[in-house]
Protein: Cytochrome c oxidase subunit 2
Organism: Thremma gallicum
Amino acid sequence: MATWSNLNFQDSSSPLMEQMIFFHDFSMMILMLIITFITYLMMNLIFNKFTNRFLLEEQLIELIWTIIPAIILIFIALPSLKLLYLLDENNKPIINFKAIGHQWFWTYEYSDFKKIKFDSFMIPQNNINLDSFRLLEVDNRLVLPMKTKIRILITSSDVIHSWTIPSLSVKSDATPGRINQANFIINRPGIFFGQCSEICGTNHSFMPIMLESISPNSFINWIKNY
């Protein structure tokens, strides 16, 4: 979960989020090399009394600073496109569930097992315990098994919302009259938090997402006993 001093990504909890962090680090490494090299050249030009006569008009240097950036962009684009297609890949999910956005709460439906449907409201600040998280606790958590291919179908009943859990690399708009889908695999047990990421009205900040990841056996018992 994000904290006040956290300036980086949240800890990864899914394979896709791991790949996104790797791509971010890869891109930042290239950017830092470019910035360092350009800074070095600029310092040489600024603090130098002499002017290179080939720098003012030279076909070779024009060719170099056209080809090299193109090659760098290719090295960045190829893993980016691969990751983009991996995020959209939705092959044979084991569990499907539906998230419906409302002003201002979420409704979840499990339709693969039996008709399980419940609303998830944020717990008001004056009702939470001292060990709870302000503006993130809900009365009904979304419960899912870990190490399982999961597909979420996302829609809305009123305005545009966005179902987002950063540590799972999931962010998809909930659009009225349309069903969007996303997929993810949870690596580990735990509780993961997210919030609506689309400005949807006055209480936009008060419709959090709280997902609890448990073992497959515990999930089956939860389904049976619900």
About this structure: The longest strand covers residues 95-102.
